[in-house]
Amino acid sequence: MALLEWKQEYSVGNASIDHEHQHMIQQINSLYEQLAEPVDADDVEAVLGEIHADISAHFALEERLMRKADYVEYELHKEDHEDLLDQIHDLMDSFFEDPEAGQKLLKAQLSDWFGRHFASFDARLHQQLG
Ligand SMILES: [Fe+2]
Ligand SMILES: [Fe+2]
User: Fold this and answer.
1) Is 20 exposed, middle or buried (0-12, 13-18, 19+ CB in 10 A)?
2) How far is 49 from 67, CA to CA, in rounded Å?
């Protein structure tokens, strides 16, 4: 089963943002599936690097929109983005020390984090900004 499932309640009412969120879910799911079997550490590093880059670009776009609109929840929303990026860094470190622990961390942290962030911070943001 996939680690993360897209749910209608994650929709923020903006088709291109929903599409980017779905893409992030797919990337995380395919990494998770890949980790079910023994993998080469270099491959995992490359995939995690790609995920990190795509998510950073998505967050930077949202943060630009928020600054332009003088969005009142900007600081809190940005902090939540930074937390996720930190978690991805922790995952990268833990994979290289211990791939099994890294996989557990992925399962424990990222699935909840994504659902919560989309359904709360991003939903509020896009209700206001479109
Ligand atoms: Fe966000
Ligand atoms: Fe987002």
Assistant:
1) middle
2) 27
Is 57 within 8 Å of 65 (Cβ atoms)? no
pLDDT averages per 10-residue partition of the chain, 130 residues = 81 84 89 80 85 93 93 96 90 82 79 81 85
- Cβ(68)–Cβ(125) under 8 Å? no
The CA radius of gyration of the chain, in Å to the nearest whole number, is 15
What's the pTM value of the predicted model, to 2 decimals?
A: 0.85
CB-based contact 35:62 (threshold 8 Å):
no
CA of 21 to the centre of ligand 2 (A): 6
* CA 103 to centroid of ligand 2, rounded, Å: 23
Residue 113 tokens, joined: 């984090």
- Structure-token match 């600081």, residue found: 75
What CA–CA distance (Å, rounded) separates 122 from 64? 14
